[in-house]
């Protein structure tokens, strides 16, 4: 299992400070949502967790080891990453694209084995894309492509999964399915971190939320304590109704907060 911790993490992109003194500890067996307004630093945070952007101060440790000291190949086997807004350039079939998720487990010039094929089959089934298996990935709709790329990440079968906006381009039904799938991964013992914009889905499915605002971690805890009407007004600038329907927590923006 994988635990990720940050201490005093600050990041600048170019000369622009993006994250400021973020302290948190992310442990396995939980689905953790990263939320906040546009420009809050959500994507930068998850990229920093993977060592894809350097810290200007503070740092990130994976199981107590500085992320910069971990070989990229080892990190890729331990943490699967689904970035946002990926563009597909090569006309691979869906099955071959999902198979790329097994690359961290393969030695140079080695072939995919039975265990890899089984992992690919499991990922395709989990993402519910069996009917797309033989299609060319570049010809898929945006929603279909998003599910295929999620399957590629699942095929790694890593101990942790970091997904940046995994619900983008998905219709409501598939958004619910993806959140349920992430929930299953966490309940099986994985650490799952997802950048989310839909606050109702975040509130319903996540064990814990990290709320970022202007690069700072302003709240960290269960959804009931993080998502309040006061924070919706202060952070998002909206008046919101927060309540329950059929036992499910809902966050409904009503109007711009004057």
TrEMBL record:
<keyword id="KW-1278">Translocase</keyword>
<feature type="domain" description="ABC transporter">
    <location>
        <begin position="4"/>
        <end position="239"/>
    </location>
</feature>
<keyword id="KW-0547">Nucleotide-binding</keyword>
<dbReference type="GO" id="GO:0005524">
    <property type="term" value="F:ATP binding"/>
</dbReference>
<dbReference type="InterPro" id="IPR017871">
    <property type="entry name" value="ABC_transporter-like_CS"/>
</dbReference>
<dbReference type="InterPro" id="IPR003593">
    <property type="entry name" value="AAA+_ATPase"/>
</dbReference>
<keyword id="KW-0813">Transport</keyword>
<comment type="similarity">
    <text>Belongs to the ABC transporter superfamily.</text>
</comment>
<keyword id="KW-0067">ATP-binding</keyword>
<dbReference type="InterPro" id="IPR003439">
    <property type="entry name" value="ABC_transporter-like_ATP-bd"/>
</dbReference>
<dbReference type="GO" id="GO:0016887">
    <property type="term" value="F:ATP hydrolysis activity"/>
</dbReference>
<dbReference type="InterPro" id="IPR027417">
    <property type="entry name" value="P-loop_NTPase"/>
</dbReference>
<comment type="function">
    <text>Part of the ABC transporter complex HmuTUV involved in hemin import. Responsible for energy coupling to the transport system.</text>
</comment>
<protein>
    <submittedName>
        <fullName>Iron complex transport system ATP-binding protein</fullName>
    </submittedName>
</protein>
<dbReference type="Pfam" id="PF00005">
    <property type="entry name" value="ABC_tran"/>
</dbReference>
